[in-house]
């Protein structure tokens, strides 16, 4: 399976912070925002990853992550000149995806919860059709919404409905088989000229090949696209890391735990940051192996 992070857009809701820097480079507590969606792909076992961003911002991600080799990854980059909808990622990344299935994650989403790693490994191992992830919200009219029947089967999808049929918001994580490329190519642009991800998902639903997984209570899904939500995400990460003594979205640790790099490589990455708590944490976990 290939992975795609869509990290484009102008971040207008975060101006003036994002006048000169990509939204996905802003800090969520002690790490750049893009670390969080990247960690999701890594936790699921994905090592081949395409980062899509604007022409003016893509060099920032290259400087931060390079080719991914230090983390045992293979990272490539592609440009999205204009924000033409989430589904455009499959057109931009068509050649990169090739004959593989693909996981798409939005660059401003934070996921955290018990058993998430096992769930991702299971779902990403063999994708048939489309797998969506739902999260209960108090204001469903602001989101794409999935409705399920009494057996938990997905029966409808709506984009920002005035009268929502459920409170299950669709998060910014999507898993697809290889049909998604052809489906996206045949989706008609919306009135705004965008390729809507909900339209792609509806095709799968109409074919009886879409599933919705309810992440449920005890899980955290945070969209960091506003001042308040960015601050809330930072506070959430800060509290958990300080109280539990573990790191959320620590790429070097995930690479080590997944076997992408060995203990020596993890220790060296920590040594390079030895003046920070982050670096000392890496050195400590690598030294225990």
Automatic annotation (TrEMBL):
Keywords annotated in UniProt: Magnesium, Metal-binding, Nucleotidyltransferase, Transferase
EC class name: transferase
Family: Belongs to the glucose-1-phosphate thymidylyltransferase family.
EC number: 2.7.7.24
The keyword Manganese appears for this protein: no
Catalytic activity as recorded in UniProt: dTTP + alpha-D-glucose 1-phosphate + H(+) = dTDP-alpha-D-glucose + diphosphate
Protein name (database record): Glucose-1-phosphate thymidylyltransferase
Biological function: Catalyzes the formation of dTDP-glucose, from dTTP and glucose 1-phosphate, as well as its pyrophosphorolysis.
InterPro entries (alphabetical): G1P_thy_trans_s, NTP_transferase_dom, Nucleotide-diphossugar_trans
Top-rank taxon: Bacteria
Domain Nucleotidyl transferase residues, every copy: 2-237
GO molecular function: glucose-1-phosphate thymidylyltransferase activity
Annotated Pfam families: NTP_transferase
Protein species of origin: Streptomyces lonegramiae
Cofactor(s), by name: Mg(2+)
């Amino acid at each position: 399976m290939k992975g795609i992070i869509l990290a484009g857009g102008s971040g207008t809701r975060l101006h003036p912070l994002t006048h000169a820097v990509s939204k996905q480079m802003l800090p969520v507590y002690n790490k750049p925002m893009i670390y969080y969606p990247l960690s999701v792909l890594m936790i699921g076992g994905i090592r081949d990853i395409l980062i899509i961003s604007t022409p003016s911002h893509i060099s920032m991600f290259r400087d931060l992550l390079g080719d991914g080799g230090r983390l045992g990854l293979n990272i490539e980059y592609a440009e999205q000149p204009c924000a033409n909808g989430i589904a455009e990622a499959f057109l931009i990344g068509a050649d990169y995806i090739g004959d593989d299935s693909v996981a798409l994650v939005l660059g401003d989403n934070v996921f955290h919860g018990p058993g998430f790693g096992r769930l991702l490994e299971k779902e990403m191992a063999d994708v048939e059709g489309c797998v969506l992830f739902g999260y209960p919200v108090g204001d469903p009219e602001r989101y794409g919404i999935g409705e399920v029947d009494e057996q938990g089967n997905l029966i409808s999808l709506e984009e920002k409905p005035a009268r929502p049929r459920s409170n299950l918001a669709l998060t910014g994580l999507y898993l697809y088989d290889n049909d998604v490329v052809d489906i996206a190519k045949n989706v008609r642009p919306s009135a705004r000229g965008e390729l809507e991800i909900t339209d792609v998902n509806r095709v799968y639903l109409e074919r009886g090949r879409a599933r919705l997984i309810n992440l449920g209570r005890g899980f955290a899904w945070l969209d960091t696209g506003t001042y308040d939500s960015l601050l809330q995400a930072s506070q959430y990460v800060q509290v958990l890391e300080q109280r539990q003594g573990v790191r959320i979205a620590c790429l070097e640790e995930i690479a080590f735990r997944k076997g992408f790099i060995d203990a020596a490589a993890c220790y060296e990455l920590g040594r390079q940051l030895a003046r920070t708590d982050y670096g000392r944490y890496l050195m400590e976990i690598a030294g225990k192996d």
